[in-house]
Amino acid sequence: MPESRNNCRYLIREKFFTIGNSFKIKDELGHNKYIIRSKMWTFGRKLILEDMNGNALLKIHQKAFRFLDQFNILSARDGELNQQVASIRQKFTFFKNSYKIYSKYGEYKFKGLDVYDQAFVLKNKDDKTIAIVNKKYLAIPHTYDVEVINSINDQIREDHAFILALIIALHCLYYC
């Protein structure tokens, strides 16, 4: 029996005239779904992913003063406030960027699909593709097409806000 898929597409667009990082995330129909705001005057980057009602869902914090970059994703939801959801650590390599992604959902893998990692996939611990990400070339500001892949047959559907936060953290590791 073929596996049934219910994929969601998002467009992540960095706001151009802002101090720090700020992003809008729209669904495939063009509706605003999430906004990401950066906190100013901090050591290391600190971003907050909010729904369109202004409810904070996740925090993305860069560990400052480290030889190899590290970002932590923390819950901003009531009852789970500041609990670590994931950690993204840069691995020491000479030629290509490589990261270890640990989360409460398990380990994730980042795999570049082209020479410059402008297109990449996120895979879960079972080596299933969770998201396909394509950065638009020569786009100012930075713009990403994201397809989050959900299998209806899977027991746990991936948390879209979490997957989008991972992608923003990877963006910050590359371009910030």
TrEMBL record:
Similarity annotation: Belongs to the LOR family.
Species of the source: Rotaria sordida
One Pfam family it belongs to: LOR
Official protein name in the record: Uncharacterized protein
Gene3D superfamilies reported for this sequence: LURP1-related
Lineage: Eukaryota, Metazoa, Spiralia, Gnathifera, Rotifera
